[in-house]
Write a structure and sequence with these properties.
The protein has about 160 residues and is α+β, with helices and mostly antiparallel strands. It is built from five helices and four strands. A hairpin with an 8-residue loop joins strand 3 and strand 4.
Length: about 160
């Protein structure tokens, strides 16, 4: 047995490897769940995906407030997005358009990449309901909109704002 395999079997796995493996599995899970529900149930499946990820986002927002101490501001909502982006391995660039609006672009989105490997984007059903719920549940009165939807060539640009 090789050194790496022996170490892994004994539970000695470098934290970077654990994070990479978990992240990869999560990206694949999101993709496969979306594909299967779409193929089996069509538009009902797509609606189910949206509901699942919206609920997960609401629950995660609540947990982030409790565990990380986020407040209720637009900045807190953005910070929560940045935390999720770091966890998922995204490269995100926020641009403050005004005191009440921040737009976030992605120079790299691993979920977009994973969707594209399988030939169909499910950003509207999986990602957007999730991050929308996070932003809107963290920030009091905060709303999300899509400035530019993702397509086959590029990732989305989203905004958080206070009306």
């Amino acid at each position: 047995m090789g050194v790496m395999k022996t170490a892994a079997v004994k539970g000695i796995i470098p934290s970077g490897n654990k994070v990479s493996e978990l992240r990869s599995n999560l990206l694949r899970l999101i993709t496969e769940t979306s594909i299967v529900l779409d193929e089996r149930f069509g538009s009902d499946g797509l609606q189910a995906i949206e509901e699942i990820f919206r609920r997960l986002g609401e629950e995660d927002a609540k947990a982030m407030k409790e565990r990380l101490g986020f407040g209720n501001s637009l900045k807190d909502a953005l910070d929560a997005w940045m935390v999720i982006g770091h966890i998922m391995g995204s490269k995100m660039e926020p641009t403050w358009v005004s005191e009440k609006r921040v737009e976030v672009s992605h120079s790299y989105c691993p979920q977009h990449e994973e969707f594209m490997k399988r030939g169909k984007l499910y950003c509207n059903q999986a990602c957007l309901p999730y991050v929308g719920a996070i932003g809107e549940k963290i920030g009091l009165g905060v709303k999300m909109d899509v400035v530019r939807p993702a397509d086959e060539k590029d990732t989305c640009i989203k905004a958080l704002y206070v009306p």
